[in-house]
Amino acid sequence: MSKRNDDLIFETLWAAAIGAANQAGDKWVAEHTQPIWAVKDGNRTVGTMLDVCGIVYIRCSDKRSKFWKWAVKNQLAYSISLALNHKYRMRQEQGLNEACCYAALEVLTKAGITALYVYSRID
After folding, report:
1. pTM summary value
2. For residue 14, which of 63, 60, 89, 83 has the smallest C-alpha distance?
3. What is the pLDDT of residues 90-106, one digit of tens each?
C-alpha cells in the first residue's frame, strides 16, 4: 500500500470514527435528559448534573503503527491519546464521553487498528 493510499484510508477511517462518536453522543444525550446527581452545599442543593464529570479519551499503547504515526503527523494525537474532536468533546459528563470514545474505538478496531483502548476516570 502506498503512503498516499494509507493517508486516504486513514482519513476515511478517522471521519467514520468521528461520525460514530457523534451518533453515540446524540443517543446518550437523548437518553439522559434528567439530572441524576445533586450538587450540595451542606443540606442545600445548589445544582444538578446529568452524570459525574470524567476524563475519557482513547489511548495508544504502541506508537509504532502506521495509523498512530499518521495521527501524529496530522496533529490528531497527543503524546498518549487521540484528539477525537467529536461534537461533545467539550462536555464533561463521563458517560457521554465514554459513549463517544467507545463508538470511535469500535470503528477503528473493526478496521484493524490495534493497541488502542479507552481510558476513563472520574474527575
Report:
1. 0.91
2. 83
3. 999 999 999 999 999 99
